[in-house]
């Protein structure tokens, strides 16, 4: 379809979506009324700039289901991902949304070269995280044989990869590298495996990493992009040309804005990616700020498709970290620390990548008033902190108690995160 | 007989213990006894010094986390059976010894004890004619 045709379809779907949120979501109705606009003000994509932005905070403020546009009886699935503090960001799907999700995931897998004869090895986590189930439904839709192995237990992954004959690998890029090395060290030779292509996402990864994965695993490494608020994986994905990720813009309309001024930037500029869902029913979102930084390319791709492409995302306009594919905001750590009087609120988060797996360490100062003479008491404190954190952030973390003043103080905003990873 | 022992929190990093001792050395502080309790993650340095309060302030000024803990100082004949008797007296009364360390002084030995209940421990040991060492005498060693 040419760009004009695409725009026509998008405008029609936008009108429907705006009506849907105006009449069904009090939060959007209030904001639109305050801005003096109603559904009749929005006729096409060109009017999108009149509408307000939506942020993660808005989802949190309306936790859990406040932004849903249908009654809960029509929601057939709920997923969640990390919010800026303790509360997760919750998303919901109607039956039709699940069908849409399966469709965009089917496109993702097909453009990666997968078909019904493939064995899709899904090592993304299954559960509230959208990665596992997203790939799962896409794999079933194309008729492939889906292996829902989820994350962890690398030795078993390799064994089953061998025994079942997995051909398509779905996991985070860092886990793919980890697997590559584990295969070399296992008794199983690469020639005994049937892996052909991988679809990797949920965390940023460079061209260098891609080359490394392709060399070490001897597969084609395809970049996929998504976020649960928009739908999950399936928002955008690479084709065989591997020159940008095609956005499924018949379902998700993309804009690039300046994260400071919030103005829409001209075609081809780098800036923050904003999505408006134009077909979702359960949780339609207007101009959702992803905080991911990228650039859009509207030229026709060598593969023949005209859907706009986005560049690999490598940066963010906020302080969110992605660790082993899981979102983490430093403020989540802070809110756990503030609840414990035994420690000073001065902390340092150190992120590293060892053997291709992300590691997380928290250095925290013991408060002098709490320090007594007992080893067991300090050990208990360290353990309590580790447990509270792991329960709250959903990630393994090593807690190290340090002496006071080890952690730099500063006049303004203290540097709380050291990220030693180089992608 | 009740001694204020200094405890200092140490990160498991090379040079931390050295730094504490250098700080004390610069002020010519005499150390009567020293021990380190360690785990894989961190350690607690325990010191017996003549002026615990002043030394604590000094270390705090150098950004160490310190605290004072009451321990008991006992003088006993330098034979294992006497040490055993002391520990038996305490365990019979369900007073737990969190830690202890001891030094030979020739015929006698100096024993430091940290008990779950300092006053009860002193009462019990007194009634068994255990000899205590006064703080002022301890610091003369």
Features:
heterodimer, A: 423 residues, alpha/beta, Rossmann fold, GMP Synthetase, Chain A, domain 3, twelve-stranded mixed β-sheet, 20 strands, 25% strand, B: 141 residues, alpha+beta, VC0802-like, 5 helices, 7 strands
Treating each run of at least 4 consecutive H or I residues as one helix, how many helices of chain A? 10
The value of Rg of chain B in angstroms is: 16 Å
Helix content of chain A: 25-40%
Largest interface: A-B, 17 and 21 residues
Tell me, what is the CATH class of the largest domain in chain B? Alpha Beta
CATH superfamily grouping of the largest domain in chain B: VC0802-like
| Broad structural category of chain B | alpha+beta
User: What is the CA-CA span between the terminal residues of chain A?
Assistant: 36 Å
- The averaged pLDDT of chain B comes out at 91
In the predicted model, the low-confidence regions of chain A spanning at least 5 consecutive residues are none
**Number of strand elements of chain A:** 20
CATH architecture of the largest domain in chain A: 3-Layer(aba) Sandwich
Oligomeric nature of the chains: heterodimer
| CATH fold node name of the largest domain in chain A | Rossmann fold
Alpha-beta classification of chain A: alpha/beta
Task: Please state the overall shape of chain B, judged from the principal axes of the Cα atoms.
Answer: globular
**Overall pLDDT score of chain A:** 92
String of helices and strands of chain B: EHEEHEHEEHEH
């Amino acid at each position: 379809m040419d760009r004009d045709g695409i725009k026509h379809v998008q405008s029609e779907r936008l009108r429907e979506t705006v009506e849907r949120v105006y009449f069904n979501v009090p939060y959007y109705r209030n904001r639109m009324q305050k801005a003096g606009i109603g559904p009749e003000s929005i006729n096409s994509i060109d009017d999108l700039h009149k509408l307000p932005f939506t942020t993660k905070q808005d989802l949190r403020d309306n936790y859990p289901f406040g932004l849903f546009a249908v009654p809960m009886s029509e929601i057939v699935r709920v997923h969640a991902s990390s919010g800026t503090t303790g509360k997760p960001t919750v998303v919901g799907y109607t039956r039709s949304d699940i069908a849409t999700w399966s469709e965009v995931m089917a496109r993702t897998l097909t453009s990666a070269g997968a078909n019904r004869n493939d064995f899709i090895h899904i090592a993304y986590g299954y559960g509230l995280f959208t990665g596992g189930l997203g790939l799962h439904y896409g794999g079933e839709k194309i008729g492939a044989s889906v292996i829902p192995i989820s994350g962890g237990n690398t030795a078993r992954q390799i064994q089953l990869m061998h025994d079942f004959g997995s051909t398509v690998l779905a996991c985070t890029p860092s886990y793919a590298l980890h697997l590559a090395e584990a295969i070399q060290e296992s008794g199983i030779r690469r020639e005994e495996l049937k892996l052909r292509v991988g679809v990797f996402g949920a965390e940023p990864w460079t061209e260098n990493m891609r080359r490394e994965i392709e060399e070490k695993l001897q597969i084609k490494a395809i970049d996929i992009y998504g976020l649960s608020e928009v739908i999950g994986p399936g928002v955008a994905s690479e084709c065989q040309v591997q020159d940008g990720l095609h956005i499924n813009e018949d379902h998700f309309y993309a804009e690039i804005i300046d994260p400071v001024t919030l103005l829409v930037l001209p075609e081809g500029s780098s800036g923050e990616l904003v999505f408006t869902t134009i077909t979702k029913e359960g949780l339609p979102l207007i101009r959702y700020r992803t905080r991911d930084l990228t650039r859009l390319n509207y030229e026709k791709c060598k593969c023949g498709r005209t859907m706009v492409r986005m560049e690999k995302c490598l940066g963010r306009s906020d302080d969110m970290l992605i660790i082993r594919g899981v979102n983490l905001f430093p403020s989540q750590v802070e809110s756990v620390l503030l609840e414990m009087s035994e420690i000073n609120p001065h902390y340092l988060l150190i992120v590293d990548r060892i053997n291709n797996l992300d590691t997380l360490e928290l250095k925290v100062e013991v408060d002098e008033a709490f320090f007594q003479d007992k080893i067991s008491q300090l050990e208990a404190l360290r353990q309590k902190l580790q447990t509270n954190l792991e329960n709250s952030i959903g990630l393994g973390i090593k807690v190290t108690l340090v002496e006071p003043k080890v952690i730099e103080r500063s006049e303004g905003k203290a540097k709380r995160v050291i990220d030693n990873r180089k992608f | 007989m009740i001694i204020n022992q200094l405890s200092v929190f140490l990160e498991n990093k090379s040079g931390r213990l050295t730094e504490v001792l250098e700080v004390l050395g610069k002020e010519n502080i005499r150390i009567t006894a020293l021990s380190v309790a360690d785990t894989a993650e961190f350690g607690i340095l325990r010191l017996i010094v003549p002026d615990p309060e002043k030394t604590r302030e000094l270390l705090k000024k150098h950004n160490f986390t310190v605290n004072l803990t009451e321990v008991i100082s006992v003088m006993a004949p330098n034979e294992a059976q006497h040490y055993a008797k002391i520990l038996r007296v305490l365990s019979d009364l369900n007073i737990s010894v969190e830690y202890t360390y001891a030094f030979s002084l020739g015929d006698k030995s100096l024993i430091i004890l940290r008990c779950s209940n300092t006053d009860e421990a002193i009462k019990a040991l007194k009634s068994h004619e255990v000899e205590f060492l006064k703080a002022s005498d301890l610091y003369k060693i």
